[in-house]
Every structure is written in structure tokens, then in C-alpha cells.
């Protein structure tokens, strides 16, 4: 094969590198995924079923395990809708409007990415704890935040807040405001503009952000560990319950609960892939639409 033909072939493949370079990079990527993704998942499944399927089921039927599963689902069911509302509102304000303090709001959205989850949990203890800023007032009114479900929800909301907003902000900024302005000129109200123009344009990014937010909410450990108090059967989520079981040398039970988290992670990846696939199909269908002809004079 002549040199020009090789160049043309590589250009069609989307790269100018030699084939051995491409296959080396692919092999390294697959090896990395096997070592850090496939192998750990296989180890979790193997350890969970080491004493048989019956022991696996018994570990999941244990009351403390059910309590941890239930609390994890409740926390995610509260935190994700709250972050859905907050994230859409923040993204809409940042992407569609110009106002004083916009840079500060953008920084606050990114704050949970910069702050350690453990530090975030300590902040909530400082504010709502028995010796905290408003702890005595809460105790006087018999309101429990720390070492109770509200504290776990607050900590989870904090660490998962950026996922939806950060997914939507660049998407909304790239779309601009032309369609919203056209809808308002035609007489649409603010809510009509949002439901019929803005929301359909961001639906895939919104779903993607919700999936990531939900996955982080169910798997959060650091912040929840600080504010929960590790009360078995009451304030232990699934990650905390796994730690307790493992520290007590109940490895089969620990890996059984951990396998549920692994299954949830795999389901999250599958849903994410389906959403990306459908989004690509929709964009491809839109790109293949024939251009509109100008109206005849």
C-alpha cells in the first residue's frame, strides 16, 4: 500500500497514528477496565456467594440489612427530587439570565465538589449538633437533625447537589435563549415556555443528571458516616452497614449487601447507556431531516 493510500485510510479511521498505536491504547483501556471494574465486581459476587445462595439470601433478610436498604432508598427518594428542583432552577438562572452575583452562584454550585464529604458532615454537626450553633434550640423543641434521618438527607443533598446543575448548565448555555424569546414574543407565559420549550430541549441531559445524582445518593459514605451516628437498624445506610458487617468479620453478609450496591451501579450504567443511545438516535434523526424550503413568493 502506497503512502498516500495509508494516509487516506487513517484519515477515514479518524486518526493519523499507526494501527499498533490504536490497538495498544485499546488494550490498555480494556486492561484497566478489567482490573478496576470487572475484577472487583467479580470478587464481590464471589465472596457474597461463598457460602451458598441460602446464606446470601439470609444476609439480605436480616432486619438490620432491610433497615439499611430502606433508609438508603428513602434518602435517595428525598434527595434526588430536591436536587432536581434546585439543579434546574440554578442551571436556568445561570444559563439564561445575566445578573449580579452570577459568578458567586456558579461557584456555590461547584462547592460540594471542592469540599470533602467528611468536612461537609462535620459542618452539619457544627450547625445542628447538640453543642452546635442551633443545637440547643432544636433540643428544646424536640427536633433531631444529627444522628437521625433528616441529617442523613441534608448531607446527601449537599454532596449530590452539583450533578444535575452541572449537567444542565453547559447544555442550556449552548442552546441559547432564542427559542424562549420567540415563545414569549408569541404570547407564552413563563411556565408555558419552560414546559413546552426549555424542558423538551434539556430532557436527555436532565435524565442523565438524575441518574448520576441517584447513584451518588445511594452510595454516599463520608458525609453520611459523620452525621448518622452509626445506629444499627436506625441510621445506617447500605454503605455504612457494609462497613459495620466487615468490621465484625461477617464477610459474607457484608459482601451480600455490597453486591446490591454493585447491582445498582450496573443498572445505573445500563440506563445511562440506553439514554445516550436514544439521544444519539434522536440527534441523528434530526440531522437527517431535509432542510425546510423558503416559502414561495
UniProtKB/TrEMBL annotation:
Residues 69-276 form the ABC transmembrane type-1 domain. This is Sulfate transport system permease protein CysW. It is found in: Cell inner membrane. It is a multi-pass membrane protein. Its main location: membrane. The keyword Cell membrane applies. Keywords: Cell inner membrane, Cell membrane, Membrane, Sulfate transport, Transmembrane, Transmembrane helix, Transport. Pfam families: BPD_transp_1. The keyword Lipoprotein does not apply. The complex is composed of two ATP-binding proteins (CysA), two transmembrane proteins (CysT and CysW) and a solute-binding protein (CysP). PANTHER family: SULFATE TRANSPORT SYSTEM PERMEASE PROTEIN, SULFATE TRANSPORT SYSTEM PERMEASE PROTEIN CYSW. One of its GO terms (cellular component) is plasma membrane. GO terms for molecular function: ABC-type sulfate transporter activity. Part of the ABC transporter complex CysAWTP (TC 3.A.1.6.1) involved in sulfate/thiosulfate import. Probably responsible for the translocation of the substrate across the membrane. The chain crosses the membrane at residues 20-45, 65-95, 107-133, 145-165, 206-231, 251-275. Gene3D superfamilies: MetI-like (1.10.3720.10). InterPro entries: CysW_permease, MetI-like, MetI-like_sf, Sulph_transpt2.
